[in-house]
TrEMBL record:
Gene3D superfamilies: Nucleic acid-binding proteins. It comes from Galbula dea. It comes from the Eukaryota. Pfam families: RADX (PF17659). Transmembrane segments: none annotated. The gene is Radx_1. SUPFAM superfamilies: Nucleic acid-binding proteins (SSF50249). This is RADX protein.
Length: 306
């Protein structure tokens, strides 16, 4: 059928009611958001953002309400979609922005694609990877993997992806979303090593929309975390309190989930796998820890400083 591109869509959307189909690849995926309120009568108040791209650039796509339970898990990073009968709206200005793996990619930030059950009823098709043709010009998923030895030089709030062997995982803890609110964030701390430094990655992993993965992070698993943010305590000595925290677009993968993921082609991921082959499993097992209370960032060593 006659296709349009994201670039053409941005130029012509105001003068059209019906749009030609789009062929795009998912590059980023946000966590699922529940926006239900007691006074609002919405059957399934869910929303999820995706960043999708074709040869002309990248744009946000929003999945609404009952389409979320139906499609959210099938739309993975790297999935190619054919979209028909979608709506186009002006962008929501306050949403979080993932950092693209390809810094050269053009971003269309004024509008977003809206996928709904009605007005109009969107038709979504997933194109299997083996049927994707090179002449479609769809961009590959690119990552920003770093090693542990590179982390100390990165600035606060820098966005990156990491892979490591888990040596510690803490219990799930809760933090209030707002001071007097009743909603909580669920998170856990983990340590992962990659052989490039004596220090581990310290990871603050919030429960994203992947409960099956969040609950099964355990020592000796290969852990991949994407779209992590560097957090530095700039008041203390900066190197001692650097850790990584998840963002709204973070995806987490553990042993058993890696097959077929786009990051398996990344050089730093391949280097890490080579390093793990040189390690003795029994020796690493002796150094692993699970559970317990993990106070971080650490309180000062003496009471006066505290």
């Amino acid at each position: 059928s006659k296709l349009t591109s994201l670039g053409q869509l941005e130029m012509t959307w105001r003068s059209r009611v019906h749009f030609h189909p789009l062929l795009v690849r998912v590059l980023h995926k946000s966590r699922l958001r529940y926006y239900g309120k007691p006074e609002k009568k919405v059957d399934m108040p869910y929303q999820a953002y995706f960043e999708v791209a074709d040869g002309s650039g990248m744009m946000s796509m929003v999945l609404w309400n009952s389409l979320c339970p139906e499609w959210y898990n099938s739309m993975k990073v790297g999935t190619v979609l054919l979209l028909e009968q979608y709506a186009v709206k002006t962008s929501y200005p306050f949403k979080t922005q993932p950092t693209p793996g390809d810094s050269q990619m053009k971003r269309f930030a004024t509008i977003e694609i809206s996928l709904n059950v009605r007005d109009p009823p969107t038709k979504i098709s997933i194109i299997p990877e083996e049927m994707v043709k090179p002449e479609w010009g769809l961009p590959e998923v690119k990552y920003r993997f770093i090693t542990r030895s590179e982390l100390d030089d990165l600035p606060n709030n820098h966005s990156c992806d990491v892979i490591g062997l888990v040596t510690f995982v803490g219990r799930a803890e809760r933090a209030r979303k707002r001071e007097h609110g009743e909603d909580f964030w669920l998170y856990r701390w983990a340590h992962a090593i990659d052989g490039t430094s004596d220090q581990p990655f310290i990871l603050e992993i919030f429960a994203t929309s992947q409960p099956d993965v969040f609950e099964h992070i355990h020592p000796m698993t290969y852990l991949v975390c994407t779209q992590m943010r560097v957090v530095r305590d700039l008041t203390e000595s900066p190197s001692s309190t650097v850790y990584l925290t998840t963002s709204n677009e973070s995806q987490i993968f553990i042993t058993g989930c890696h097959k077929g993921q786009p990051y398996t082609k990344d050089t730093k991921v391949k280097n890490f796998i080579q390093w793990t082959k040189t390690q003795n499993e029994a020796d690493q097992m002796k150094k692993t820890v699970i559970g317990g209370y993990y106070p971080f960032p650490r309180p000062p060593s003496n009471f006066l400083k505290y």
